[in-house]
Design a protein that fits this description.
CATH superfamily: Vaccinia Virus protein VP39
Pathway: tRNA modification; N(7)-methylguanine-tRNA biosynthesis
InterPro entries: SAM-dependent_MTases_sf, tRNA_(Gua-N-7)_MeTrfase_Trmb, tRNA_methyltr_TrmB_bact
EC number: 2.1.1.33
Mean pLDDT: 88
CATH architecture: 3-Layer(aba) Sandwich
CATH topology: Rossmann fold
Largest sheet: 8 strands, mixed
Oligomer: single chain
CATH class: Alpha Beta
Distance between the termini: 29 Å
Structural class: alpha/beta
Number of domains: 1
Low-confidence stretches: 1-22, 27-31
Function: Catalyzes the formation of N(7)-methylguanine at position 46 (m7G46) in tRNA.
Radius of gyration: 17 Å
Number of strands: 8
Pfam family, one: Methyltransf_4
Order of helices and strands: HEHEHEHEHEHEHEHE
Strand content: 15-25%
């Protein structure tokens, strides 16, 4: 979930006078190549669909130009699932955080090709977005799909789903709001279940792992894994 840091203020540079804690990050830096089509999407659609990082509380009505439930997505990769969910839930508004420039370009391209209007992108570290732009009780839902599993045990501490972040997310949810995580790495699924289950503000909607909600599509990567016998685990917790 992760990648190249943005290059311009409009793409998400933090104001110089805002201090940012670094105890949690929602990404690691990796390189990536922006295609011609993605670059064109940035130019044509970026001004409308990519929000600047301001370090100030977000006004969803202004950002989306309409009311609606607000769903935060952290790390959307190339945007395949994000675009699908936005289409099948047209009344909801999706605020999507991703620093990987090719991924942002790919989602913008999908937005144009599929005539999607209920997505806004913040090309910035999601933890700082949560800390400085999302007041408590603002969100109706959170999606975190297939975050980096950090397979090696010595790297497990770098995983996104840790108690401090889950507590932040839970505090930003409205009562009855939800957190939906999915992973194809069973040890990470076990950690997610433990961490989410330990958060007093949240309640599991299932006895353990949840059935895959209808709105989350099977991606090409996921379908390949299932054919090879790999498992996928969904977890859905709600704010008490």
């Amino acid at each position: 979930m992760a990648d190249t840091a943005p290059n311009t203020a409009a793409a998400g540079q933090a104001p110089a006078d805002v201090a940012h804690p670094r105890t949690i990050r929602s990404f690691v830096r990796r390189t990536g190549r922006v295609t011609t089509g993605q670059a064109k999407a940035f130019e044509e659609l970026g001004p409308k669909f990519v929000l600047p990082y301001t370090g100030q509380p977000l006004d969803p009505q202004t950002a989306f130009g309409r009311p609606g439930k607000l769903i935060l997505e952290i790390g959307f990769g190339m945007g395949e699932a994000t675009a699908h969910i936005a289409r099948v839930r047209p009344d909801d508004n999706f605020l999507c955080c991703e620093v990987h420039e090719p991924g942002v370009g790919a989602l913008l391209k999908r937005i144009g090709e599929q005539d999607i209007h209920n997505i806004r992108i913040l090309q910035h570290d999601a933890v700082e977005v949560i800390d400085f732009m999302l007041p408590e009780g603002m969100l109706d839902g959170v999606h975190i799909f297939f975050p980096d599993p950090w397979h090696k045990k010595k790297h497990n501490k770098r995983r996104l789903i840790q108690s401090p972040l889950v507590a932040k997310l839970a505090s930003r949810l409205k009562q009855g709001g939800y957190i939906h995580c999915a992973t194809d790495w069973e040890p990470y699924a076990e950690q997610m279940l433990e961490v989410l289950g330990a958060e007093a503000q949240l309640a599991n909607t299932a006895e353990g792992y949840a059935p895959k909600p209808d709105y989350r599509p099977l991606t090409k990567f996921e379908n390949r894994g299932l054919k090879l016998g790999h498992g996928v685990w969904d977890l859905v917790f709600v704010k008490r």
